[in-house]
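Quick start: what a row looks like.
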Amino acid sequence: WLKEGLAPGMVRNLHRVLHASLQVALRRGLIVRNPATQARPPTPKPPPGVALTAAQAQQVLARAAGQPFGVRWWLALLLGMRQGEVLGLRWADVDLPGAVLVVRRESAKSHRARALPLPTVVVGMLAELPRISELVFPRPSGQRRDSKADWNEWQLLLAHCDLPRVRVHDARHTTPTLLLELGVPARVVSEILGHATTAMTLDVYTHVHD
């Protein structure tokens, strides 16, 4: 199947169906073993990240600045916060006077909290947000915003900027690329993203533009 040009994900799905079918035959006594068990399906690789250029990022930030919750995208692009981290962010973790934001364990994939310095302009934008919930970016009802709706808003923002459709997570990919292009040390970038090692930052998240 791989030699015929099928994608690894498709081959893995075909193997799953074939294995399940042969298991039925095995239970019915039609075969003595499931030969599909001996075949190891490929592991699909995640799609490569796409980083916005500095000019594209500036477009998005400028457009987002005029939206009610536009600062949400400033956090994604400037601080590399994941979608779940932003949507789960609570006011208790935001220190506006100290210009620091803390990403807690329960809203992150990593096993440790990390403190992120807030640019002055972001502090001002956060200060203007209405506090209708313990969450910084809630729905009008005060409950947590839906990730799908958040994705739709991101796509709409990109469309208004006449930019190609990229994932919400690609905003996080953009952060280290731009910081490294600006000469920020890799270790500092790694701390901002919450990576265990600098090597992970350099290997996975950087796509430095010419």
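That is the whole record. Strands lie at 94-95, 100-103, 114-117. The mean pLDDT is 87.
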